[in-house]
From TrEMBL:
Taxonomic placement: Bacteria, Pseudomonadati, Bacteroidota, Sphingobacteriia, Sphingobacteriales
Transmembrane segment boundaries: none
Residues covered by the Mur ligase C-terminal domain: 321-434
Major localization class: cytoplasm
Similarity field: Belongs to the MurCDEF family.
Protein name (record): UDP-N-acetylmuramoylalanine--D-glutamate ligase
InterPro entries for the chain: Mur-like_cat_sf (IPR036565), Mur_ligase_C (IPR004101), Mur_ligase_C_dom_sf (IPR036615), Mur_ligase_cen (IPR013221), MurD (IPR005762)
Origin superkingdom: Bacteria
Keyword terms: ATP-binding, Cell cycle, Cell division, Cell shape, Cell wall biogenesis/degradation, Cytoplasm, Ligase, Nucleotide-binding, Peptidoglycan synthesis
Cited Pfam families: Mur_ligase_C, Mur_ligase_M, MurD-like_N
GO molecular function, a single term: ligase activity
EC number(s) given by UniProt: 6.3.2.9
Amino acid sequence: MGNIANTYYPQSGRLVVLGAGESGVGTAILGKDKGFDVFVSDLGTIADNYKKSLDEEGIAYESGQHTEDLILNADIIVKSPGIPEKAPLIKKLRSLNIPVISEIEFAAQYTDAKLICITGSNGKTTTTMLTYYMLKNGGLNVGLAGNVGKSFALQVARENYDVYVLEISSFMLDDMYHFRADVAVILNITPDHLDRYDYKMENYVNSKFRMIQNQRSEDYFIYCLDDEETMKALPRFEVKAQQLPMTQDSKVEYGAYLDENKNIKINIPNRDEFEMNIEELSLQGRHNVYNNMASGLIAKVQELRNQSMKESMGSYVNVEHRLEHVAIIGGVNYVNDSKATNVNSVWYALESFSTKIVLLLGGVDKGNDYEMLRDLVRQKVKAIVCLGKDTARIHEAFEEDVEIIVNSSSMEDAVNIASHLAEKGDTVLLSPACASFDWFKNYEERGNKFKEAVMAL
């Protein structure tokens, strides 16, 4: 049964799901289908569409509170990745030895589908979506889940896919123990969410490497030879899977590399070689070469034809809120990169443009170190428009590198200011490096407000 070799968890009894978002409601439905007595508890308010699903399925739930009497009697708990390990309720559950696991861990028990799992500090959404697009175009019966798409658990319950492409965050990995990835991908590791890892980089790295736990010799592990943190950590872990490295700086026998003519070369044992020039890729920029290499390696593992891979890599359109072209107004290019919630994502964004940039930056700072941006900011950014309540750190970080740094009072205000600062041929780039929770519900709302403000110019 499924990708968890033996079933380590209760297969009946009381299942309590903490958090009633996409993953929580999907878990509840799968649990109900498998015969559990299911209860869902959310400390916040539950969105109407999720309430409707729970009502239709006849699943008991509460919102605005966690009633301990209804939770501590669970046989198994599935928690939302957003709930930290330090939360008092989680500590209490751990002390009672009640298994607390993630949706992915729970649902993997009930599927025999191949699981392709992608993590990394940056590029994981793009790589996941590109891989899904390639496999679908290649004729595979494939589902998309994890951080993107519909709940994995819900699809396991109600759909029938042969392969899943899963975008996996470190928070999900923290609650995964026996789960096994048929193909595990670690794109890169850069400081992010360190507040959840006691501000220790090693803890965050260890979390990412949970991706390869339980892999076997017939599985594959794709990683980046050029990524410093990955390579530093690799010797600490036992890798049983077949290793497929990717690199733009050297040559490898098996894996993916860039040759002297800027062709991506992909070689996997017992498969024909794949080659494609980076000029032909629909996604441009150095970071997107890695994303294409990772997706290309996965496609080769799944035995896709070269022609089909080329067509997909040449026609894929990027996801919303990730370097999304909004409009050209008065010769100025407006780009929505609201999904860039960490410094490294902003580095990738800046690296993608050859024009002068007016940068919209700021929000809820997660302890960002802006040092790595300074060179690129100096070279490319002519002005910074600060978003959010807390802008002091941005001023401090860049006051010597950028002539103009101004605060704004709303997204509309920020876009208006940026439009006056930008000249013909420039790019106005929303790439905030921060979470959005001070002015907006989430990065999607922030990106949509940016697009509305641009269209209103």
